[in-house]
Amino acid sequence: MKCVVCNTVLGKHKRRYCTTTCYDYLHSEIQKKKYKNRRPKLPVKPCVFCDTPFQPRDKRHICCDVVCRRLLENRKAREARIPKDKQKPKYKPATLYYCTHYREEELRDKPEKPELWEDRKKVHRRRSKKEEEAEELVVVRPLPLTNSDYSGQIEEFEKNGGMIQVFAPQLNGRTPDVNITSISGWSVETMFGYGYEIQLMEELNDAG
Fold this sequence. Notes:
It contains 7 helices and 2 strands; from the N terminus they run H-E-E-H-H-H-H-H-H. It has helices at residues 20-38, 66-81, 100-107, 117-121, 129-136, 151-159, 188-207, and strands at 45-46, 53-54.
């Protein structure tokens, strides 16, 4: 029997191939045929750099060889370095990371902005509509004048065109009872409230 690849007479215990070299060669040829059947060749297209027609390996293959690919990359790098607007070149902002000479050259022709330090401290907060309406709204006195000792002056002030603003009622602050012992079992808040109650009853009795 002879080898399938090189027609050499086979030795003992050999059936198809004389050596592993012939086996690897035939196996690689079979794999190439299978690869060509699965992936057919792409149509020939011109090179992007030199317009030479070539056979691309895949869709991303745009240059015919390595030389054209390197020349194309160099040309793109040169175009990227050229500023779009030559009249207004872009300079890097002057920061603390640059040397002192560079900062002086950068900030030499720039006009100084007249900005005060007090203006920087101000926090400009946007006001809501309710706050703007509250400033424009003037609350007129809706209370009667019977309990006031200055009823005549108030009426005269209103006749002359004056307007009186009434604020919201303010609650009395609580008295702290820290380190204060309770007297006869009554707390300080209860005793204060009881005192207000007695004062109110006396005023009502005097009025009656």
